[in-house]
Write a structure and sequence with these properties.
Blueprint: H1 3-19, H2 23-34, H3 39-45, H4 53-89, H5 108-122, E1 126-127, E2 133-135, H6 136-139, E3 159-161, E4 165-167, H7 173-182, E5 188-197, E6 209-219, H8 224-239, E7 245-252, E8 255-264, E9 281-290, H9 292-297, E10 306-313, H10 314-322, H11 335-344
Parallel strand pairs: 1-5
Antiparallel strand pairs: 2-4, 3-4, 5-6, 6-10, 7-8, 8-9, 9-10
Helix pairs in contact: 1-4, 2-4, 5-10
The structure holds phenylalanine.
């Protein structure tokens, strides 16, 4: 071996390192030169036969150092390259629009129910529930709706089995159920929110499935005036302190006298507008003094006990409150429309 040979080996090593592109190629190169049968390893073992061991040793050392230096340098370079590649591929583009997370919101009818429930609870009422699949007895019979009354017609009511089991057509059967439980002995103050069903053709103001909130108060001194006062509180709570109320005579078999309860139009303040159909007033519930027949049938002595009852249409209140003009909106599943309710909140 001579200087020339050393230089040629070194230049060959240089070229090989220059061509290395991947870490695994570097490993191969290492074993090619420094492995058991590697070029440099073999050169080293040749020292035994060398004439001039010192200069031979120095030459092998030169090759070895060159190799090691180049190896370290290349390793560093490739590691850096790899790191940069990684950083590049994992880069987060903060200018990309974020994935939108859809946020749920309370059902608008549920919100009105909860609001009314807490108002009535603050006045000492209990919240009770009744079955949606109801018996003729509670839905009609005990409410003084005689056989043959038009509301009992199968054209108006969904009957499930014969003429005895039906989908309740109002929440008033809960009145009868509650009175029977009171056994003619205890005063009653309840509200009952819930689903109700009628065989209506669906349109903007009718839905075969709708909601009511029923109220019943039975006590020894309870008058139409108390009903008026209560309705006034509810109306002001729902539609603001300047809301006026009025009763109009009406007819329900289970109340006597019966009334339609109106609020002054919150939109035109009584001037007349499309919302109140130019009357200045909007009807939001039916109500009245509990009929003596109902008290009697449900176990309360009409000579001792008196009471009033009311039934609000929940969709009607929600529609007025949130400016919704089609009742079907509550019952379809179009998320875009349901979503639009959110924006109507306070
Ligand atoms: N149940 C009646 C209806 O569905 C409303 C009502 C309730 C009327 C209580 C008077 C008393 O129309």
């Amino acid at each position: 071996m001579n200087e020339e040979k050393v230089e040629s080996i070194i230049s060959e090593i240089n070229t090989k390192f220059e061509n290395v592109k991947e870490i695994n190629e570097l490993q191969l190169l290492k074993s090619e030169y420094l492995g058991k049968k590697g070029i440099i390893t073999e050169m080293q073992s040749g020292i035994k036969e060398a004439a001039d061991k010192k200069s031979y040793g120095m030459m092998v050392n030169k090759v070895r150092t060159t190799f090691n230096d180049l190896y370290e340098e290349k390793l560093k370079e490739l590691n850096e390259l790899e790191l940069n590649r990684k950083l590049e591929s994992e880069k987060i583009d903060i200018t990309l629009p974020a994935t939108k997370i859809r946020q749920g919101s309370p059902n608008i009818l549920e919100k009105v129910v909860e609001d009314m429930e807490s108002l009535f609870m603050s006045m000492g009422y209990d919240v009770v529930e009744g079955p949606e699949i109801e018996e003729d007895l509670y839905n009609f019979e005990l409410l003084n709706l005689p056989k043959g009354h038009p509301a009992r017609d199968s054209q108006d009511t969904f009957y499930l089995e014969g003429d005895k089991i039906l989908l309740r057509s109002h929440t008033s059967p809960v009145q009868a159920r509650t009175m029977l439980k009171g056994k003619g002995e205890t005063p009653i103050r309840i509200v009952c929110p819930g689903k109700t069903y009628r065989r209506d053709d669906d349109d903007a103001t009718h839905s075969h499935n709708f909601m009511q909130i029923e109220g019943l108060l039975i006590d020894k001194k309870a008058t139409l005036a108390d009903l008026k006062g209560t309705f006034d509180v509810v109306a002001k709570h729902l539609f603001g302190d300047d809301c006026k109320t009025r009763f109009r005579p009406s007819y329900y078999p289970f109340t006597e006298p019966s009334v339609e309860t109106d609020i002054s139009c919150f939109k035109c303040k009584g001037e007349g507008c499309p919302i109140c159909k130019n009357t200045g007033w909007i009807t939001i519930s039916g109500a009245g003094v509990v009929h003596p027949n109902v008290l009697k049938m449900c176990g309360y002595d009409p000579e001792v006990w008196h009471g009033f009852a009311f039934g609000f249409g929940l969709e009607r209140i929600a529609m007025l409150k949130y400016g919704i003009n089609d009742i079907r909106t509550f019952y379809n599943t179009d998320l875009r429309e349901i979503k639009a309710f959110d924006r109507r909140e306070d």
